[in-house]
């Protein structure tokens, strides 16, 4: 009995392995049972010949098994070639490896602004990939395209762009770039309008196998809107402040003191441009709002520059933009931070000090820390970044 049980288990396990064999063997099993039962049936009531039995069995054995699904097609070869066995010049087999670039680590050029600097000169302010400038030699070309006018004889004109890197190498992923475009003739002399194009070429920077040139439109002058008197008329302001990027948790009380102090120092013919890089939160804006309404302050939102990793929230590109944007509107322009104060000696005014420097077109100011004993300390430590107490003495 044990042997029969073992044989039955083996038989059943074999049935599970293949569905088609299972069906065939099951049919044969029932045929055998029927044949055995027929032996006990009287021949007078039922007869079956051997040929009939062979025919039945042959029909069962000829039942086609259920076809199994076809195997999946082989995967196509990869189009990405990572390595290849090659024969070098010394008839030696070596493995050549391949590199496949995707995306872009840093942009070739990012434009912020462009301004006319005279009858035939322009300044383009932007950012560029620092490695291109450190390890390559990028070049720039400027092109003026006049508007099509049948009465005008103006044609396209090009010139080499002279690049200036004003951040002294402090840039991070991006460095500030000012491109000067000076043409050999007056641009838009008929005031028909046109546009300025910049061609920025990597020239060996980045991918050394290619000299990629990007073309971009940087400035458009509409017909009849060019005012050339801007370059030789009397400036609107005596003193103009270009502020660096404002970021962090600025203390509104210190900002209120700073703006009130310098408006009083510079007088009514002064103006202040502040650049919000995330530091002008609601409380700081409430401090600046009355000064904006009085016409003393212009606030510019530059938070988008945070997409590009430059030095100190890209303050070099910000102050250069302010310089070229407003330089014809002021007699003197100042560049310092909101944690610093301009100080003039007793019996002097800002006017007398600057009048003594009228023969110069640029001067620097010596910094001297202010005594902390005269700083307001009631709210010290209440903000993450508070304005420092410091002063500048004109020399």
Automatic annotation (TrEMBL):
InterPro entries: Glyco_transf_92. Pfam families: Glyco_transf_92. The keyword Transmembrane helix applies. Its main location: membrane. One of its GO terms (molecular function) is glycosyltransferase activity. Its EC number is 2.4.1.-. It is found in: Membrane. The keyword Glycosyltransferase applies. GO terms for cellular component: cytoplasm; membrane. Keywords: Glycosyltransferase, Membrane, Transferase, Transmembrane, Transmembrane helix. Belongs to the glycosyltransferase 92 family. This is Glycosyltransferase family 92 protein. The lineage of its organism: Eukaryota, Viridiplantae, Streptophyta, Embryophyta, Tracheophyta.
